[in-house]
Amino acid sequence: MRRRCGGNMILESALWIPVMTILVVFVIQFGKITYTYYALRNSLYTTGQYLSTQNTVNFCDLAGDPTIQAAINLGVTGTADASAPPLISNLTPDLVAVNIECIDPTNPAVPGPCSAPCGGLGPGPHPDYVVVTIPNGYSVTPRMLYLTLSPILLSPVVTVPFRGTSL
C-alpha cells in the first residue's frame, strides 16, 4: 500500500518561508546600506575633485572660503546652489568637512597636516592632498521585519591629490 505524504511539503514550506523571507529582507537592506555608502563616497569625491582642480583656494579659511563652500554644495546637491535639494536624503553641507594634508619631507610615506604659515604670516599652505570626510558619520537605520535595529554610522573618507594653486 502506498502512504500519502502530501502534508510533508506543506509543513516544510511553512517552516522555510519565514526563514527565506528574513534572508531576502536582510540582503536587500545590506544592498541599500552599501549603495548609500558608495553614493556618499561619490559625493565626497565630487567635492574633493572640484577643490583639487581649482586655483586660488584659501585653505587657511576652510569654513569661510566661497570656493570650498561651493565645492561642498556641489557634492551635496549636484549644483553650487545651497538651496537645491540634496542628492542623498538628510545629507547637508554641515555634515561635510574639508581638510588638507602635506607630504612630510622626512617621511614621504606618511602624509600629515600642513605646517605652512597662515593668517598673514605667509602665502598659506600648498597642500599635496585634499581630504573630504563626514567626521560625525551619516546615520543609516536598517529596517527589518518586526525588529528595531540601532543606526549604523557611515564615515567615508576621500583623499584626492591637489593639482591647483592656493592663495
How would you characterize the overall build of this protein?
It is built from two helices and eight strands. With 167 residues, the protein is an alpha+beta fold. It has one domain (10-161). A hairpin with a 2-residue loop joins strand 5 (143-144) and strand 6. Helix 1 (6-52) runs antiparallel to helix 2 (66-77). It starts with 5 loop residues before the first helix and ends in a 6-residue tail after the last strand. The model has no long low-confidence stretch (mean pLDDT 85).
Question: Low-confidence parts lasting 5 or more residues at pLDDT below 50?
Answer: none
Arithmetic mean pLDDT: 85
- How many helix segments? 2
Tell me the β content: 15-25%
What's the alpha carbon Rg, rounded to whole Å? 24 Å
The total of beta strands comes to: 8
Distance between the termini: 94 Å
Write the H/E string, N to C.
HHEEEEEEEE
What characteristic shape results from the CA principal axes? elongated
Largest sheet geometry: 4 strands, antiparallel
Please give the domain count.
1
Task: Output the strand order for the largest sheet.
Answer: 2-1-3-8
- Which secondary-structure class do the elements indicate? alpha+beta
Please give the share of residues in helix.
25-40%
Name its key features.
single chain; alpha+beta; elongated; 167 residues
Quick structural gist:
This protein has helices at residues 6-52, 66-77, and strands at 97-103, 111-112, 129-133, 138-140, 143-144, 147-148, 152-154, 157-161. By secondary structure, it is α+β, with helices and mostly antiparallel strands.
